[in-house]
Specification:
The chain is mostly helical. The chain has helices spanning about 10-20, 25-30, 35-50, 55-70.
Length: about 80
Amino acid sequence: MHRLSLSPRQAQVAGLVIQSHKDKEIAALLDISHATVRTHICETKSRLVADDRVGLAYRVFWTFRHLVEPHRYPWIGRDPR
């Protein structure tokens, strides 16, 4: 998540959001309060310029998609020269 400039906790929360966990489930899994989860989600959406949870997932997915399947996305990460 270094590419996205997220803290380790924000990265954990974002990963659980992408896996479709609800806020209360995330709070229980990470042993933090529901309010803290909401704060992490809001901060993460702000950093990724995402309007909602779907936008957050989209940003993370497209940032790392070329790492998983580079043959399908050869233009990502290439030097434009």
